[in-house]
């Protein structure tokens, strides 16, 4: 930087006492304190006599100090710049482009009941879970903490390809290597995946805090957009674990046979179609291999759920009968 300032002073002197046509001044090799070749260039911009000064280090092509005609400056310096303690005064607007790095938690052997792999989100927006192939036979579940790991709440996995959600993941020996997103609503400080049922074996699990979330949550007057695709099940899904309001929903069925949607006013995770009490009556989704669906109109102030909001999608009106994978798509607006 000392070299840059010295050459800049030379540049100002040269421009003050010289004609405004473009000139180059090269500091000779061997000059004390300078690189093998340091070039000063003054440029006459469009006959308007607005000068641009560029100090370039010929030994390193992308190291420079540039003073623009409008008085702004561009600086590109290689290596480490150490700045002592100084007061900083802002004049004008500062623009910063930052790409935060992922935060990777410690790899943990999932080999016992309540063994957990976790990560501090550290201001990141999302989290992902990766398990290596192993011999684990058991069930794992994702959880989040809102208070730095003091207490934990169950949440859900999101398949990165299909978008399907699940409250747990069941492994049999040998377990496959896989990656899943961890989904939640609102903010959180930590995420983890724990062994909730253990039979035998082990597999290494790792969590990563990421800059992105596995889905987009849209807030409009406090409402959220939630959705999933059907699995080979009756698709019990908890949409909200506390009292809330359903403002609208749309369901599309690509099977030639009709399907049924049921809602549940409980906090079961997940609700169990065919066993839990249905809230209201089942909704029929027409069948059509090319796609058919419903987006029924609801009251302007929505339908209130006093305990929690759950949903199921199945082939029989009574809540039984598994759907096929990805044949039904469900979306809802809740608060």
SSE order and pairing:
Blueprint: H1 2-16, E1 23-27, E2 38-45, E3 50-57, E4 64-67, E5 73-76, E6 103-104, E7 108-109, E8 116-120, E9 126-131, E10 137-145, E11 153-154, E12 156-158, E13 165-166, E14 169-171, E15 178-183, E16 190-200, E17 204-210, E18 224-229, E19 237-240, E20 244-253, E21 259-264, E22 283-285, E23 292-294, E24 303-305, E25 309-314, E26 328-334
Antiparallel strand pairs: 1-2, 2-3, 3-4, 4-5, 6-17, 7-17, 8-16, 9-15, 9-17, 10-11, 10-14, 10-16, 12-13, 12-15, 18-26, 19-25, 20-23, 20-24, 20-26, 21-22, 21-25
Key words describing this protein structure:
Jelly Rolls; 335 residues; mainly beta
Overview of this protein structure:
The protein is mostly beta strands and 335 residues long. The protein folds into three domains: 2-76, no CATH class; 103-210, Jelly Rolls (Sandwich); 224-334, Jelly Rolls. The chain contains one helix and 26 strands. It has one helix at residues 2-16; strands at residues 23-27, 38-45, 50-57, 64-67, 73-76, 103-104, 108-109, 116-120, 126-131, 137-145, 153-154, 156-158, 165-166, 169-171, 178-183, 190-200, 204-210, 224-229, 237-240, 244-253, 259-264, 283-285, 292-294, 303-305, 309-314, 328-334. The strands form five sheets. Strands 6, 7, 9, 12, 13, 15 and 17 form a seven-stranded antiparallel β-sheet that branches. The radius of gyration is 31 Å and the shape is globular. The two termini are 56 Å apart. The relative contact order is 0.13. Residues 1-40 and 42-62 have low confidence and may be disordered.
């Amino acid at each position: 930087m000392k070299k840059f300032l010295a050459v800049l002073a030379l540049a100002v002197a040269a421009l003050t006492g010289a004609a405004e046509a473009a000139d180059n001044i090269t500091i000779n090799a061997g000059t004390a304190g300078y690189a093998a070749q340091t070039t000063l260039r003054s440029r006459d911009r469009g006959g308007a006599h607005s000068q641009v000064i560029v100090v370039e280090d010929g030994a390193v092509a992308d190291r420079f100090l540039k003073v623009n005609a409008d008085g702004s400056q561009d600086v590109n310096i290689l290596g480490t710049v150490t700045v002592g303690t100084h007061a900083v005064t802002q004049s004008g607007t500062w623009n910063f482009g930052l790409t935060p790095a992922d935060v990777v938690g410690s790899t943990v052997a999932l080999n016992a009941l309540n063994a957990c792999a976790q990560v501090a989100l550290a201001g990141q927006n999302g989290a992902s879970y990766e398990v290596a192939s192993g011999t684990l036979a058991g069930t794992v579940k994702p959880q989040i903490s809102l208070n730095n790991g003091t207490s934990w709440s169950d949440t859900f996995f999101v398949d990165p390809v299909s978008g399907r959600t699940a409250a747990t993941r069941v492994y049999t020996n040998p377990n496959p290597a896989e990656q899943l997103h961890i989904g939640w609503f609102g903010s959180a400080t930590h995420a983890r995946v724990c062994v909730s049922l253990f039979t035998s074996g082990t597999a290494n699990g790792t969590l990563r805090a990421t800059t992105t979330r596995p889905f987009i949550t849209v807030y409009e007057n406090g409402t959220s957009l939630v959705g999933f695709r059907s699995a080979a099940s009756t698709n019990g899904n908890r949409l909200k674990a506390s009292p809330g309001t359903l403002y609208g929903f749309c369901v599309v069925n690509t099977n030639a046979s009709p399907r049924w949607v049921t809602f549940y006013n409980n906090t079961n995770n997940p609700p169990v179609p065919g066993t839990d009490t249905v809230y209201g009556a089942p909704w029929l989704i027409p069948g059509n291999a090319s796609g058919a669906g419903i987006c029924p109109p609801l009251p302007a102030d929505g339908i209130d759920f006093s305990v929690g909001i759950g949903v199921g999608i199945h082939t029989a009106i009574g809540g039984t009968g598994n759907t096929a994978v990805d044949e039904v798509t469900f979306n809802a607006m809740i608060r």
